[in-house]
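Here comes an entry:

___
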Amino acid sequence: MRTTTINKPFIDPSCDLSEGITYDARNHSLSWIDINRGYIYRTLLDSHDEPDGIKSYKIDENIGLMGLTNDVNKVIVGVSKTIDVFDFSKGAIVHNLARFPNGNVASNGWQLRSNDGCVDEKGNFWVGTMCDGSCPEVKDVGTLYRLNKDTLKLEIVMKNVGIPNGLEWHDGYMYWASSMEHIIYKFKMNNSTGLPDLASKQPFVNMADAFKNHSNKSYTLGEPDGFSMDTEGNIYSAVWGTNRVIKINSDGKVVEEFVFPAKRISCTTIGGSKMNTMYVTSGADHDSDASPDDQGSKIFRVQLDDQIKGIEKRRWQGPLN
């Protein structure tokens, strides 16, 4: 297996848990969030793909994800209890699109929050929910939803999920990371409904298998986190707790690893002027045994092979006001 080692960060935004990184080719920008501190960040890249200043915007609650829209200055965001529109030009949430049922409180009374998700091929917005920081532990009390672009109805796709994470579609299949199970699943899509056939659910990659021959056995506990995909169907998945992003081919085989100076690698996106640069987010390591050299919370950059092209982020096709 090929190994690429990254030794230094690309951007140091002073985050705690940077996540949800998104490239927009229309204005050559990178955006990401800090889940724990409730910030949205954006930088416009220059002609050399270097950051030309970074702007940060405070949200009054946790933010779990964002998606592009047809307005380059507006993104759709999932926050603690709602799905909203954020306007970069105003630096604020400007419109509410939907509210999670029951205030996003689970049946056991625990408060949930938005986590990962994305916009699908038809322009609907998918978002998973999970226990927030007030819960005594993380359990499978979350839900994967689809916000219908036409009706603005929040439709339940899957119940009883623990930590819903990376999500993408390719060639008639949906790929979805269930972090608590350490598995990326594969589902056959129903073309008429635009929803996955839940009966077709099958493990695509199990982290215990992916790392079974690795010298550090603790990596078998690595959690698949946010991921992106190239046009050939290869997945580039962050694996929380392992310092790594792994490249998984369309057969479910791990063919390459990217090693970072940060234990808690959280999300990837592919962008840049040639759509073959991978940008990677990370979280600060607060464990008592954390390395003093850990670069967690920073943004990293990896130049992929010339022939690789990332799938561009899709845009929400529903209303913005």
